[in-house]
Design brief:
Layout: H1 21-31, E1 35-39, E2 42-45, H2 46-62, E3 70-74, H3 79-90, E4 94-97, H4 104-113, E5 116-122, H5 126-136, E6 141-145, E7 160-161, H6 162-167, E8 184-191, E9 197-203, H7 204-218, E10 225-227, H8 235-238, H9 240-246, E11 250-252, H10 259-269, E12 273-276, H11 278-290, E13 302-305, H12 312-321, E14 324-331, E15 336-340, H13 352-359, E16 364-365, E17 371-376, E18 381-382, E19 391-396, E20 403-404, H14 408-414, E21 420-428, E22 434-439, E23 443-446, E24 449-452, H15 453-461, E25 466-476, E26 480-489, H16 497-505, E27 516-519, H17 532-539
Parallel strand pairs: 1-11, 3-4, 3-5, 5-6, 6-7, 10-11, 10-12, 12-13, 13-14, 26-27
Antiparallel strand pairs: 1-2, 8-9, 9-20, 14-15, 15-16, 17-18, 17-19, 19-21, 21-22, 23-24, 25-26
Helix pairs in contact: 1-2, 1-9, 2-3, 4-5, 7-9, 10-11, 11-12
């Protein structure tokens, strides 16, 4: 033992587990009187948000929620969703943010897989929740959220109403983080290449570090006014619920992600930061093109874009509007964005087209991510930085998931060789910025959401007329990408594009349904394996990620 290991042990005074829950306590302590949440007519300060979150934590504890228990949410971007991101981790519990676009069977499957004990659900989703609860096959505590900004239909399904539950419990004296920063903070489901969702388990340390990385990457100032256009159910809002708390910013909530509502919120609440998929940015451009007055009164705004690589027209359009766009790349397994196309000062001197090309790359690793490169997955050696040699994007570091829930085989495969394998194929350019060229996973990214092509194919195969099918991505001016199906019919069978699309609607969530069907011979190898790369060439789907 050397001298630096003697009598210098970690103690509570000098070693505390990292958790983003600490951001909420600090901000409430220092900036408690400052605004924290804006939602319609509702306004909460940071002291109030902290108290509401502590009341929710107390209520959940009274309902039996503790360390390692799962709390699911089915909520739009409302104050309750923000508070759940603070309350659930403070108990050592795990938050499972369900995609509001999913159908009832998949909601039930995910809640059963992560063994959720409580569901916090907005009453707008009551019809699908009722079906999911029926499919669950077991009892679960349901807390109904009756949002003041929602006036549509939707019955109460649970034994508890959110506001009444908060009022019935004294707040916990403190929102504490875990004793072990490796403890799970969230489980988020992502489509896999097999079509089966995988439960991505993330930890407190990673959430803390990625929240800080968001600030550093964006050079986000203190007291930002952040608009919730990105769904908080998606990778826990890329860790921005915690990032905003860290910077004592304002959560500007938005139930409906519509261009006019976005622009109005930017003007009315002084929004200066937001994140969104390319489709949202394109919607803003189109709205302003039709009515330039919508941009009046809006100051400097910074947007972050991910999903499929943003089309050049989108980056150019946002630049002409005066919006500064930062392009990031990542996956659920790396807490959302884990790399960024850092804009070097010299880029400003380039022509707009070259600026768009440079900004459209996946870029370099986040500041607190230990490694990101492009490697040959067979030899686990880095490819040359020549912009030509293809390899697989890989990450390593603290901003990588714990693994896949109840799926040790997939976890081991994902971490082979000491790196996380993304499945995305790319090149390393001479400046060491990464550029995606193709996807080894057959995942279609539509409106920022992942669609498993195999899941769509499984639905098509359930139609009696379908002999063979393959689904690939094609460029979509609205959604970035959309599913395109190629189909071969059984001898003597007949069907139509409309009939197959209607058939898929009975089996899939709406956004997963093919937008088009082509009845054409499907290329296969001598052993009968479908050659999707040829179909991608037909569909010109590769241009969606150029």
């Amino acid at each position: 033992m050397n001298i630096y290991d003697q009598h210098l042990d970690p103690t509570p005074a000098n070693h505390v587990a990292l958790s983003p829950v600490s951001f909420v306590e600090r901000t409430a302590e220092v900036f408690g009187d400052m605004p924290a949440t804006v939602h319609g007519a509702r306004r909460y300060t940071w002291a109030q948000v902290r108290e509401r979150s502590a009341r929710l934590a107390a209520a959940l504890r009274a309902l039996g929620i503790g360390h390692g228990d799962t709390v699911s949410t089915l909520l739009p971007n409302t104050p309750e969703m923000v508070e759940a991101h603070y309350a659930v981790p403070a108990l050592g519990a795990v938050i499972n943010t369900l995609n509001t676009r999913l159908d009832a069977p998949l909601l039930a499957w995910q809640m059963n897989h992560c063994e959720a004990k409580v569901l916090i659900a907005d009453r707008e989703f009551a019809p699908v929740v009722a079906k999911a609860l029926a499919a669950l096959g077991r009892d679960i505590v349901v807390i109904d959220v009756c949002d003041s900004e929602y006036t549509g239909p939707g019955e109460r399904l649970g034994a508890h109403e959110y506001e009444a539950l908060l009022a019935a419990h004294e707040p916990l004296p403190r929102l504490d983080g875990p004793a072990n920063e490796w403890d799970a903070i969230a489980v988020s489901y992502t489509s896999g290449t097999t079509g089966d969702p995988k439960g991505v388990v993330t930890h407190h340390r990673g959430a803390y570090l990625n929240a800080v990385s968001n600030v550093v990457t964006w050079t986000m100032p203190q007291f930002p006014r952040y608009l919730w256009t990105l769904p908080m159910f998606h990778c826990n809002g890329w860790c921005f619920p915690w990032t905003v708390a860290l910077q004592a910013g304002v959560h500007v909530c938005l139930r409906r992600v519509e261009p006019q509502a976005i622009l109005a919120a930017m003007r009315d609440h002084g929004v200066n930061h937001y994140c969104a998929a390319p489709i949202v940015h394109n919607g803003i451009i189109s709205a302003v093109a039709e009515n330039p007055a919508l941009k009046d009164g809006i100051g400097a705004v910074r947007g972050m874009v991910a999903g499929a690589a943003p089309p050049a027209a989108m980056i150019e359009g946002m630049a002409r509007m005066g919006f500064q766009i930062t392009h990031v790349y990542g996956l659920t397994e790396v807490y959302g964005p884990a790399s960024v196309a850092v804009a070097r000062p010299s880029w400003a001197e380039a022509e707009l087209g070259e600026q768009v090309r440079l900004n459209g790359r996946q870029g370099v690793r986040y500041p607190l991510q230990e490694g990101m490169t492009v490697m040959d997955p067979e030899t686990m050696t880095e490819v040359p930085a020549d912009g030509q040699t293809m390899g697989e994007i890989m990450f390593r570091g603290n901003i990588v998931m714990k693994g896949y829930l109840k799926n040790p085989a997939s976890t081991a495969k994902a971490f082979e060789g000491g790196w996380f394998h993304t499945g995305d194929l790319a090149v390393l350019e001479p400046d060491r910025y990464v550029k995606i060229k193709d996807r080894s996973k057959d995942i279609i990214i539509s409106g920022g959401e992942n669609i498993s092509s195999i899941e769509v194919e499984d639905a098509l195969y359930r139609h009696p007329a379908v002999l063979a099918c393959a689904v690939v991505a094609r460029p979509d001016p609205k959604w970035g990408e959309s599913p395109l199906a190629y189909v071969e019919l059984r001898p003597g069978a007949q069907t139509t594009e409309a009939e197959l699309i209607a058939h898929c609607r009975t089996l899939l969530a709406g956004y997963k349904v093919p937008k088009a069907v082509r009845f054409e011979p499907i290329p296969k190898t001598s052993t009968g394996k479908i050659q999707k790369f040829e179909l991608r060439e037909r569909a010109k789907s590769s241009s969606a990620i150029e």
